[in-house]
Design goal:
35% of the residues lie in helices and 28% in strands. It is α/β, with parallel strands linked by helices. The chain binds flavin-adenine dinucleotide (FAD).
């Protein structure tokens, strides 16, 4: 079949939070875009991932006119609990830094952004295949893809944005000599579950225990999300419900008699994680955003928020480039975005190393972690750093 051509200003690969939010922001600035996405709308809508939105991410959704549903249906959390030595220690965000976060699942963010793009006539090609990016060093970069009906297409644009997640094609299309990859692998993973149960606590609990880390998180009044640290090679299918609840409860035990509310588990998976950054976030007329350029361990709840923060900076650059014919901000995109990326990398690494048990960890290391946790909760300065980073540094 002959390749059909679509002309646009910005060609975007990936309709995750980064790609769709960028497409929406560009629309508000009168800039045309086409989004090419390999998964179906339904698959993305029903895939559970991140759940915590920084206040800056909430403002982006609301102030851009995408949706204010998060304010009505999301749950505002004014703090988290750090649990160690068998009891909770609250980090009060509102008191410490005057900010909050919102529990609002990533698939709801997707629903809002997809609906906003639909409402405003956005060009989003779901269920596409065989996508590739080419001529990136030229003024006429392109995206090739095949649509859901088998029709091959070529997107002609001025700029390509790679927001195609950690396994995408865009980053790989940058020649190795033009990018530097920084990464570390962790010797543990998260065993994650979704369960039909009432919430066990009103806010997230990050627990340090002799048996390893656990996170008690919520989704809705009837569905809960929980994790516990496990070996990266753990086979999730070998765990029965009883074993999972017992393991989680054993990590939450303590003098306060805290007891988890249990129920039917309908999803269980092992989530390996690593810290990764690709620098710079630009090659020719290809710009990377979100997980396509960096991934963080989920302990700091930064992945989705960082993707949206990249897009805010990139939108400013593209707006100035297309509407004021000034490329200064666009040229500064990578450096500007990377400042926040490395702060988030540090925070995610810090939370992870403070709360998880290293498989080769010594008794000294466990005691040192408890000293660190105690320093954080007993000092306003220590708690404030956590609160400021968790709720999100200001989006300038
Ligand atoms: C299982 C799981 C659980 C997670 N849990 C958390 C959490 O609890 N907290 C947290 O902060 N973060 C979490 N994350 C990370 C968070 O989901 C990501 O940081 C966030 O989705 C990044 O958004 P993005 O738009 O950059 O990338 P993505 O959401 O990954 O979107 C990229 C999109 O590009 C599409 N794509 C990929 N390749 C192509 C291609 N060749 N052509 C066209 N389209 C393509 C993909 O289908 C995808 O829809 C989790 C991630 C996973 C995988």
């Amino acid at each position: 079949m002959e390749r059909r051509i679509v002309k646009t200003q910005v060609g975007i690969v990936g309709a995750g939070p980064a790609g769709l939010m960028l497409s929406h922001l560009l629309y508000t600035s009168g800039i045309d875009s086409t989004v090419v996405e390999s998964r179906s709308h339904e698959t993305i809508r029903t895939t559970q991932r991140a759940g915590i939105l920084e206040h800056g991410s909430v403002n982006m959704l609301v102030d851009s006119g995408a949706s204010d549903r998060v304010l009505r249906e999301g749950h505002r959390h004014d703090g988290i609990e750090l649990r160690f030595d068998g009891r909770n220690h609250r980090i009060d965000f509102l008191d410490l830094v005057g900010e909050s976060v919102w529990l609002y699942p990533q698939n709801e963010v997707f629903t809002d952004l997809a609906e906003a793009r639909h409402r405003t006539g956005g060009d989003v090609r779901y269920s596409s295949s065989d996508s590739s990016v080419l001529d990136l060093e030229t003024d006429t970069p392109k995206i090739h893809f095949t649509d859901v009906d088998g029709q091959p297409w070529e997107v002609h644009c001025d700029v390509v944005v790679g927001s195609d997640g950690s396994g995408g094609i865009c980053k790989k299309s940058i020649p190795a000599e033009h990018r530097k990859d920084y990464f570390i692998q962790y010797p543990f993973a998260w065993f994650g579950i979704l369960a039909e149960a009432p919430p066990s606590a009103p806010e997230l609990i990050y627990a340090h225990s002799d048996r390893g880390f656990a996170l008690i998180s919520q989704r809705t009044d009837k569905i809960q999300r929980m994790y516990f640290q496990c070996d990266p090679n753990e086979d999730a299918s070998t765990w029965t419900e009883e074993m999972i609840w017992e393991e989680l409860q054993s990590r939450m035990g303590g003098q306060d008699g805290f007891h988890l509310k249990t129920g039917r588990i309908f999803e269980q998976m092992v989530l390996p994680f690593r810290s990764y950054v690709c620098e710079p976030m630009r090659y020719g007329n290809l710009f990377l955003a979100g997980d396509a350029s960096h991934t963080v361990p989920p302990t700091g709840a930064k992945g989705l928020n960082l993707a949206l923060a990249d897009v805010k900076v990139l939108h400013e650059g593209l707006d100035s480039y297309f509407n004021s014919k000034n490329s200064e901000l666009l040229d500064a995109y990578s450096d500007r975005a990377l400042q926040r990326v490395w702060k988030a990398q540090n925070f995610s690494y810090w939370m992870t190393s403070m709360l998880h048990q290293h498989p080769d960890g010594s008794e000294f290391e466990k005691k040192r972690q408890l000293g660190e946790l105690s320093s954080v909760v007993s000092s306003r300065a220590g708690s404030s750093y956590l609160a400021e980073a968790y709720t999100g540094w200001p989006l300038k």
